[in-house]
Amino acid sequence: MSTVATASDPTRHFFQPVIVCLTVASVALTLFVIWISLHDLSLMRAGREKFIGLDNYLRFLGDPRAMAALWRTVLFTTLATVIEIALGLAVVLFLDRDFAMKRLVRTLLLVPIIMTPVVVGLTWRFLFDPATGMANYLLSLVGIAQVDWLGSPRIALFAVLIADIWQWTPFVILLVMAALESAPTDPLNAARVDGAREWQVTWYVLLPMLRRALAIVALIRAIDSIKAFDLFYIMTRGGPALSTETLNYYGYIVAFTNFDISYSLAVAIILTIFTNVALLTMYSVLFPKTGDR
Amino acid sequence: MAQLSIRSVSKSYGAVQVLDDVSVEVEEGSFVVLLGPSGCGKSTLLHAIAGLNPIDSGTIVIGDRNVTKLPARDRDVAMVFQSYALYPTMTVAQNIAFPLKMRGLDRRTSDEKVAGVARLLQIEPLMSRLPRELSGGQRQRVAIGRALVRDPRLFLFDEPLSNLDAALRTELRAEIKRLHQSIRRTMVYVTHDQTEALTLADKIVVLKAGKIEQTGTPLSLYDDPDNAFVAGFIGTPRMNFLKATVADDGKALLAGEARVDITHLATRLENGRAVTLGIRPEHLDEKDGVTLSLSVDVTEHLGSTSYVHGALASGESVVAERREDQPGFGETITLRFQSTRARVFDGEGSRIR
Ligand SMILES: Nc1ncnc2c1ncn2[C@@H]1O[C@H](COP(=O)(O)OP(=O)(O)OP(=O)(O)O)[C@@H](O)[C@H]1O
Ligand SMILES: [Mg+2]
């Protein structure tokens, strides 16, 4: 649109004000947030804030709880994205193109995506209940000892991860399935005639054709995982012993438990910068400038 | 010895019988064309030969191996797909080298072979491009190159020229013909374009609704068709079909107008029998013979010759070639043909010889 819209194009009167408003709003908000993060605004000492420069950012670097939260965010995002993509892709390849109850399966896949995180979180909390939950019951069937899913600092993060995987792998499946269906089948047949085994057809021909779709799904999932909040809030509230506190959640605690608004906004900005750098790196790896190669 | 034997192959998709008891023998080194209207099962047959979709019954033998149950990769055939089916994420060079890579050929030999094919098809400047950066004709040549690089037992072409413009089509048709003459490999070629079939084939198999109508050399299909479908399908413009009744002297009476001597036929036709005479447009411009008068609707000028479209007194429409003059709308002209040129068909369209 903007490339064809010249100065004489009357439609600019409609889209230019919108663009201007959006730009002004986001720039102003960002600047305002940065401005506050350079102060020591706290609701505990309302009216006595002063300019403190980059102190909040330096405080972040020296804050072990924040660094641990950052590390947890990285771990959670990486695991969630990688596992969801790998699992989703595996399911799609296994189900392949046509099978009898495809429509039914597709409808069922929508259920976890549509469910609100509150319901998902509560459901998994019940499932992970050490005494009455389904998870431990299933483990007992195969003779594995009881696990304190949400009560053990070493396991809780992975319990949330399981819930996240359960909720979002279907999303990956749906998108990859759609990409697979719109991919041409003749190149696959050509590869078979050319002497490729089925795994070679998948590896050399099918997966490269799906790469773009996979990259986009991975980006979406990575962004969502970094920002994940609701599952953590419902299932663990960052506990036990801070073992599931991600940076996003930590920012929330700083703002709404400690009322340390400026520091919380500094955390938010660091998270934003971190996210952008990570995603831009990911983007340039997944979509090289040279095109599809 | 036949290089490819297709024996009583049948295939159906649900209730639709797509291939119905198809049998074809293809000699070593020959060029066989599968010809037929859209949807008659040509691609299905080719995919069955390649092993890309299973057949319900019948046997396919390539060389001396029964390959009916073998997967595509073990059949040692190369195929050029109707849609080109290039690997979209690989460069031209990688596309052509792919079959060699799958066969575990070492890099040096592979590179040499790919370069050789590129030279033959004149696609050397394109080697590092992706398929989507190529024109249709270039993609076509890459697809052919990917097949040629392999030196398989059998080449399968599925309407390889259907998406090209007329000039490129003629050029590539000649290129394929030249190729076949130089490498002398067995080729099975699918088309619904009968000019392609007539110019390329040693043998043509005419299919209709999954059944073989006739198999033979281009000349025998043109001259000696087994039925009205083949007679009408081969040759442009189409053969004229005229209703006739057998008279008491054994001659055919053309809608009350002319008498055509068909007593040379081996079959004796009883008096009053309804038949159809087939006469090609190019045989209606003789010096003498049976005469018909045609009132002209349209004349198409093709340079060296023209085709006259019009109607006989009986109302049957006829196309006739005209070499000398170019009659205009409303004129009445006289057509002459040799009665031995007329092909006789019965009510079901089967040939009476
Ligand atoms: N996967 C399928 N499911 C159901 N019917 C099919 C399928 N593939 C092909 N057919 C049917 O089989 C018939 C033969 O198809 P085929 O592709 O072999 O035709 P064709 O002779 O190659 O036609 P064209 O000249 O248009 O390419 C058609 O009637 C088609 O509708
Ligand atoms: Mg076809």
UniProtKB/TrEMBL annotation, chain A:
Pfam families listed in its UniProt record: BPD_transp_1
InterPro entries linked to this entry: MetI-like (IPR000515), MetI-like_sf (IPR035906)
Record's subcellular location: Cell membrane
Keyword Transport attributed: yes
Keyword Transport: yes
Keywords: Cell membrane, Membrane, Transmembrane, Transmembrane helix, Transport
GO cellular component: plasma membrane
Parts of the chain that traverse the membrane: 18-38, 69-95, 107-127, 155-180, 201-223, 261-286
Domain ABC transmembrane type-1: residue ranges: 70-282
Membrane topology listed for this record: Multi-pass membrane protein
Domain of life: Bacteria
GO process terms (BP): transmembrane transport
Family of this protein: Belongs to the binding-protein-dependent transport system permease family.
PANTHER family named among the record's database cross-references: BLR7065 PROTEIN, SPERMIDINE_PUTRESCINE TRANSPORT SYSTEM PERMEASE PROTEIN
UniProt protein name: Sugar ABC transporter permease
Protein's organism: Mesorhizobium helmanticense
UniProtKB/TrEMBL annotation, chain B:
GO cellular component: ATP-binding cassette (ABC) transporter complex, substrate-binding subunit-containing
PROSITE patterns: ABC_TRANSPORTER_1 (PS00211), ABC_TRANSPORTER_2 (PS50893)
Pfam families in the record: ABC_tran, OB_MalK
Membrane topology field: Peripheral membrane protein
CDD domains assigned to the protein according to its UniProt record, in alphabetical order: ABC_MalK_N
Organism name: Mesorhizobium helmanticense
Descriptive protein name: Sugar ABC transporter
Ranges where the ABC transporter domain occurs: 4-234
GO BP annotation list: carbohydrate transport
Domain of life: Bacteria
Major subcellular site: membrane
Cellular location(s): Cell inner membrane
NCBIfam families in the cross-refs: PRK11650.1
Molecular function terms, GO-annotated: ABC-type transporter activity; ATP binding; ATP hydrolysis activity
